[in-house]
């Protein structure tokens, strides 16, 4: 893993992204980046070859995480953007993307659960790929084997969710209804926020205005 600098237009956004682009979030991030710069580099994976619309690209940097930050850089007309280049295959890249998304605050419950189930599928695929599907690790000196961690335990440790939450998500059948778009969820949150705002006095509103302008608010968005 290393830091590289690329032109935003040279970063390829390819494949099925876990989250769509929210234009309003791009505008907010662009305003922040124009003011204080890019605090968190985007993440890319450089592929030896990539075919897009019949064209073969060699050494193509492909976006892993940071679609909103990349879109904001393009909106601002930046000529360069800092990137974290990671190694690994498509499973590693998707695990990285899901992990970052799970640390965001704007996923609906349905989207979070869908991310967790997919993360578990990828971890299981990695075990099979590496020939690690057996339940016992290498034997100890006394000849007894160590019990392998379950996929649910690994997912919990790597995502920061509780093991109980992960097990509940993995054991429950996914809803047949498609996950709600994050924008629909935001609309519901806006309604709740407005109700709460109307109940505040002027002193509390002034404090909230000061707090909302702090840089930490930018970390909620990709």
Q: How would you characterize this protein structure?
A:
The chain is α+β, with helices and mostly antiparallel strands. The chain has 2 domains: 86 residues, Alpha-Beta Complex (Conserved hypothetical protein from pyrococcus furiosus pfu- 392566-001, ParB domain); 72 residues, no CATH class. 47% of the residues lie in helices and 18% in strands. It has 8 helices and 6 strands, in the order βαββαβααββαααα. The strands form 2 sheets. A 4-stranded mixed β-sheet has the order 1-4-2-3. A hairpin with a 2-residue loop joins strand 2 and strand 3. Helix 1 crosses helix 2 and helix 3 packs antiparallel against helix 4. The chain is flat, with a radius of gyration of 21 Å. 18% of the residues are buried. The C terminus is likely disordered.
Throw out a few tags for this protein.
222 residues, alpha+beta, Conserved hypothetical protein from pyrococcus furiosus pfu- 392566-001, ParB domain, four-stranded mixed sheet, two-stranded antiparallel sheet, 8 helices, 6 strands, disordered C terminus
Set down the secondary structure blueprint.
Layout: E1 2-6, H1 23-36, E2 42-52, E3 55-65, H2 67-76, E4 81-85, H3 90-102, H4 109-129, E5 136-139, E6 145-147, H5 151-159, H6 163-171, H7 182-198, H8 202-212
Parallel strand pairs: 2-4
Antiparallel strand pairs: 1-4, 2-3, 5-6
Strand proportion:
15-25%
CATH architecture of the largest domain: Alpha-Beta Complex
The largest beta-sheet arranges its strands as: 1-4-2-3
Radius of gyration: 21 Å
